[in-house]
Amino acid sequence: METKLRDFSGESVYVGIDSHLKRWQVTLMSEELELQSFSQEPDSGRLISFLERHFPGADYHCVYEAGFSGFNAQRELAEAGIDCIVIHPADVPTSDREKRQKSDRIDSRKLARGLKNGDFKAINVPDVRRQQDRSLLRVHNRITRDITRVKNRIKFFLMFFGITVPKEYGGRWSKGFRAWLGTVHPGGYGDIGLGCLRDQLEYLLTRQKELEKKIKLLSRESRYRTDFDNLLSVPGVGWQTAMVLLTEIGDISRFSGIRELCSYFGLIPNCHNSGETVRIGRNTKRGNVYLKYILLEAAWMAIRYDPSLLLCYKSVIGRMDGNKAIIKVARKLLNRIRFVMKNKQPYRICE
């Protein structure tokens, strides 16, 4: 005797996926009740087969939190015709009881429930090509930070052995200084240690130059060239900053206004208002930390070349420290960047 499966045509099935490295915890809900909760391997194809086999004809809606696994699952599910969104982990409504009794099953249930109730706003999922472009800039940034770390290790290594750097090098990491490092011999196994650090530095510098050449070639491709040239007209924005902005932001029109764009950069303060009491706190921890760091560095450069931004900085520096004042400058600089990207025209400084 064969079991006849129910036809779910016209019904919706909501799928909450709590993703981990080795397992997915999946909870399925209909409009009326929780249907099933199970654990499976992190495989989109297996989930698709399960849904089609047990809930044929239904409209499937999936959600999972942004994290280490990226957007591959979203793309695979969307390619199969399944509506799938990725959300910010902090946007999941959570009761006090769920905080105190946390488990993967509870987490996936919260995701399915929130999706069913319409509580979530999807984050932007970049296309594969933009994600590849973005990775080039991010790896370059990481290598640059690694170079700084290795340089610091070399300096402290020399200090530890009482080796003084000749004055003619003036603390600059020139070719001459790096050649001098090759003549330094702390003695014994210290030579091996210094040699390893020196080789690591040379390797990272070589890779950094190679990546910079690739980034410059990328900036001249047709999909970036016009916006790239326009962004270079904005004070404080160099070629690396311009490419970071273009690959991270993508389509500027997806932001409804400057406030939403500031939120994406993490330039919106926390607030806690109740009745007549208004409390404004520090900048929110949400947002793209990488973009925020890049924009603040650009803001420090911009006040040297843009008189209006310098005036903004001077008007607030008397009542707050420089690190807070530069955030206000960064917001104004971001408004200029938005104007340039939205209107496809260069920025002109008012005389």
Q: Poorly predicted ranges (pLDDT <50, ≥5 residues)?
A: none
Total strand segments: 7
Read across the widest sheet, the strand sequence of neighbours is 3-2-1-4-5
* Helix content range: 40-55%
Estimated structural class: alpha/beta
The helix/strand order is EEEHEHEHHHHHHHHEEHHH
Mean model confidence by pLDDT: 90
Question: What percent strand?
Answer: 5-15%
The quaternary organization reads as: single chain
- What Rg, in angstroms, do the CA atoms define? 26 Å
How far is the first residue's CA from the last residue's CA?
A: 87 Å
Question: Please, how many domains?
Answer: 3
Largest sheet: 5 strands, mixed
Mass-distribution shape: globular
Q: How large is the count of helical segments?
A: 13
Domain Transposase IS116/IS110/IS902 C-terminal: 230-309
GO molecular function: DNA binding; transposase activity
InterPro entries: Transp_IS110-like_N (IPR002525), Transpos_IS110 (IPR047650), Transposase_20 (IPR003346)
Domain Transposase IS110-like N-terminal: 15-158
Description:
This protein is an alpha/beta fold and 351 residues long. The protein folds into three domains: 106 residues, Ribonuclease H-like superfamily/Ribonuclease H (Nucleotidyltransferase, domain 5, 2-Layer Sandwich), CATH 3.30.420.10; 92 residues; 122 residues, no CATH class. The chain is 54% helix and 11% strand. It contains 13 helices and seven strands. It has a five-stranded mixed sheet with strand order 3-2-1-4-5. A two-stranded antiparallel sheet has the order 6-7. GO terms for molecular function: DNA binding; transposase activity. Pfam families: DEDD_Tnp_IS110, Transposase_20. It comes from Sphingobacterium allocomposti. This is Transposase.
